[in-house]
Amino acid sequence: MWTVNSKSQQYEAVAADEAEVKVEGGFRGAIENSRRGRRTWVLAALLATVILLPLLIGAGYYIYQSSGHSDTYTEDASPEAGDVKSDISPPPSTRCKQRREWRTISLQDQQSYISAVLCLLSQPSILTTNSNQTTYSDFPRIHSHIGFNTHNSAPFLPWHRYFLHVYEGTQRSKCGYEGGLVYWDWTLHSEALEHSPVFDPAAGYGPFVGITAEYHDVKYQPHCLSRGFRDTEGRLGHIDWRDVSPESIGEVLALGSYEEFVGSRMHDAIPFGLGGDFETFTAPYDPLFFLHYTQLDCLWWLWQQRQPEKGLLAYSGHKHGHSMEMSSLDDTINMQGLAPNVKIRDVMDVEGELLCYTY
Ligand SMILES: [Cu+2]
């Protein structure tokens, strides 16, 4: 059932990806630039290591000799060697899996992704013994019980980052899906979002027609998954694009504080434009939720790399939407038992000890 992609397919997908960068631009250009930036940084670190390491060892040896500790030299020098090892580890893009944009992956990869979602919909719930519930429905459940606390506040982005990570891990552990998450870059199609390839009836989200959602927010109310297009004036058939246009997102990425960045309107345009389940706290019933949030995570990742002062740890704001208490990097991210709780600081680096992916 699970398709393994041949090398040639992967290369085809990469070629399609590169062609698109030339044609459409959008944020893929920014991603390429930031990736190039990281590669340059790694190369510089390598060069610095090669040049500086012998000097450092020489100096260390001299100091140890002078202080009469020559017999413990090897042992004491090892932390330095450990540091060096992390500097020369392979560039991030090869160490960790790359998350890709929906239209840049092959049709076969799109189908594998959809199969993984259908598979989660066929597995019993991990969180409840209710036979109507599935592994997939555990996610809207967590989002509506715990995740809603994080909306309109500082933990919004870290909480969803970890939520996506747990979802990705469950796709792998329950359904053998190795392909990684994909995202929907709405900036590439912002003036006609309703024509985005993610809505293609065959390769897009057609396979989910007729799916039943048991809850509507926290109310038990079994219904068919629903979705539509609606603009801010309530007219049907069209989604407002202004908040997700390349220009708007460019402005959001230039915001100087985390609090301003997390408070921007970019994440609301899609849920309100699609309506149905997507605008409730059980939004993850709609599989498109995960593509939308992976895009938000990608934008946060881009923004994080542009912070000259605090870097990846730039974080500030209120703990909850209606609280004056301030959030901290040591606050807990709760997954209601589906995965271990972690701290916000654990998810600030997507290539750290807990997470390993890139864009
Ligand atoms: Cu959410």
UniProtKB/TrEMBL annotation:
Residues 151-168 form the Tyrosinase copper-binding domain. Pfam families: Tyrosinase. Residues 73-95 are annotated as: Disordered. PROSITE patterns: TYROSINASE_1. Signal peptide: none annotated. InterPro entries: Di-copper_centre_dom_sf, Tyrosinase/Hemocyanin, Tyrosinase_Cu-bd. This is Tyrosinase copper-binding domain-containing protein. It comes from Meristemomyces frigidus. The lineage of its organism: Eukaryota, Fungi, Dikarya, Ascomycota, Pezizomycotina.
